[in-house]
Amino acid sequence: MNNLAIIGLATMGKNLAKNFASKGKQVAVFNRTYLRTEELISEQVIGIIGYQELSECIKSLEIPRVVVVLVKAGEAVDHTIEQLLPLLSANDTIIEMGNSHFRDTLARQTLCKKNNIYLIGCGISGGEEGALYGPSLMPSGDKTAMSHILPLLELIAAKDFNGNPCVTNLGAEGSGHFVKMIHNGIEYAMMQGIAEVYDMMRFLGIEHEDQVEFFNTANSGSTTSYLLEITTKVLKRMEQGIPFIDQIVDVAGSKGTGKWTVQTALELDVAIPTISAALMARMMSSRAQALKPLVIDLEHEIESIHPTLFTQQFVTSTLHGIFVTSYLQGLEIILAANKQYDWNIDLKEVLRIWQGGCIIRSQVLTELNGIFDSPVALQNLYTDTLEEISSAVRVLASLSGDMPRPIVHASYDYVVALLSETLPTNFIQGLRDYFGAHGFELKDKPGSYTGGWYPGRPMTKME
Ligand code: 2AM
């Protein structure tokens, strides 16, 4: 009997099947188009058995059955689950690993529950390599099903900094895909940070080899990260004597998870300016492309910056500051979701399972452990981050040319606002009350008040 099935054999599904097989599992595989199944069969991987019919594939499984679904997010997932339900029996488990919206997962879980089938929504990060050698896995759902499938997932997951599997039960239904969504929002921001530092370098006319060296050295100590590791690799690629990156069109694609993160943060009233700036920067890149005829020659006065300002320390600390604000904002959304949805996602576990396999793995994660439990530690982190990013803002201000720097500025505004003793929002309250009697609070009196702006309309306490 086969131990589990994998449905959907695009790169991720295929590599996940190989990962399970390499750990001694007998994996039944199926794909809508048989050609992909045939291709995988032709690789003759021990432990992988291909099926032409879904029903045969499911029949071949030990009971209770475990079926991993890794098809295109959206309708394909619904379609696959619909096909699976009549073939499964009570207490079987579907593990849905697509990049699904957590609300879709909730709806699918309800449907499966009606059929006495467990559905575990499981975020997966790590790209193709991660799927093959060890991804970070973010599952959530029914406890009984989870206790059955966690040992399986632990087998194939990446390892954290202490050698434990990068997988945990995130708890309530939907929270696994939620955490994956947040992961992706953070990923958008970290990448935008790297792109902006690269932009500063080319703006300043820093030689290609020096750019590589700056990033290569930045990938050490507290900023050691997968994204900086691949930054050097992407930057180094040369084609016909010039950096290949120069031949790539400057319009960023996206599959929606960054947008979902920002939408969700808005719904939960959480300010995430760094992550939003990263999303907006991608959107602006399409708009700018559409407006290419309007391009003008912007000033590039590279002499205006003193070379001693653009140092390794500057590069590393700017990246560190942006990484920290990106993570903090993602974690803030999770905290708000715990409250709003009555979830119990353990931030320490989230920080742990992101240490290995996933795209946003980095040493910075260790600095954030327990950060929201200690106001002093949080204040110190904000203060250090402010120092890092404000130096970036000052160096950039000393450039006399024009260059968009959305993430640097958003991150700076974020920490500086959180640390400021006063904000100008008192003025907004004054204006709102003047035109709309929306009320305000006073520093020296409890309660809400309104009025006092017009003769004959004294300030009154609001009910
Ligand atoms: P395919 O090879 O038949 O296209 C990523 O696109 C994966 O999702 C592929 O394995 C693809 O199968 C599968 N997929 C896409 N749409 C699907 C659908 N409606 N039903 C089942 N699988 C689908």
Which spans have pLDDT < 50 for at least 5 consecutive residues?
Answer: none
Shape: globular
* CA distance, first residue to last residue: 70 Å
Overall pLDDT, averaged? 95
Helix/strand class = alpha/beta
Question: What small molecules does the structure contain?
Answer: adenosine-2'-monophosphate
Roughly what percent helix?
40-55%
Q: What's the helix count?
A: 18
> How much is the radius of gyration in Å?
25 Å
Topology record:
Blueprint: E1 4-7, H1 11-22, E2 27-30, H2 34-42, E3 48-50, H3 54-59, E4 66-69, H4 75-84, E5 93-96, H5 102-114, E6 118-125, H6 127-133, E7 136-140, H7 143-156, H8 175-203, H9 208-218, H10 226-236, E8 238-239, E9 242-243, H11 257-267, H12 273-290, H13 312-341, H14 347-353, H15 364-367, H16 375-397, H17 406-419, H18 425-436, E10 440-442, E11 445-450, E12 460-461
Parallel strand pairs: 1-2, 1-4, 2-3, 4-5, 5-6
Antiparallel strand pairs: 6-7, 8-9, 10-11, 11-12
The structure holds adenosine-2'-monophosphate.
